[in-house]
Design brief:
This protein has 159 residues and is mainly alpha-helical. The protein is built from 4 helices and 4 strands. The protein folds into 2 domains: 52 residues, no CATH class; 77 residues, no CATH class. The chain is 33% helix and 8% strand. The termini are far apart.
Length: 159
């Protein structure tokens, strides 16, 4: 095992294969690239575990592979019911209610929510605001008409 360096010592070393001398990150050179050194510890039963190299998984929940990626498998599902962003708010809500009758509330709400999220980082956020208002209108409609909402029967499990 190689000599373990402190962050200050690693910063003084020239850039090389084992060192990345910046104030935020540094490498000691004790482990290969992509791994970090796990300190020694003692188990509850008294067994001592020596230092070892483990895979660097980064901050929990911040690894790119673990991000939930939104993909719309079918495009234009809501267009079949006359939904476009060019319509007025009332006409858009009416077309969404048509979609709720054929599909179900959950599918329509998830589709609008996904479209809203995909347009979140646009420059002017015009479409984000439109989808957000439509989603809020759909939620408000559901609260006012709870008896009209019925789940799609083909999604029920047969017993």
């Amino acid at each position: 095992m190689l000599k373990i360096l402190s962050p200050k010592q690693a910063e003084k070393k020239p850039i090389g294969s084992f060192y990345h001398p910046t104030k935020e990150t540094y490498r000691t050179g004790a482990c290969p690239k992509g791994e970090i050194l796990k300190n020694s510890y003692t188990k509850k039963n008294g067994t001592k575990v020596a230092q070892s190299c483990i895979k660097n998984s980064g901050l929990p929940g911040k690894v790119f592979d673990k991000y939930k990626v939104i993909t719309l498998k079918k495009t234009g599902v809501l267009k079949e019911f006359g939904y476009t962003t060019k319509l007025s708010a009332k006409e858009r809500l009416n077309s969404l209610l048509k979609a709720v009758k054929v599909l179900n509330y959950r599918e329509v709400a998830l589709r609008i929510s996904a479209l809203r999220t995909l347009h979140k980082h646009d420059e002017n956020q015009k479409y984000y605001n439109i989808f957000n208002k439509d989603l809020e209108g759909l939620k408000k409609w559901r609260q006012e008409h709870p008896d009209l909402y019925k789940p799609n029967p083909k999604n029920k499990k047969n017993k």
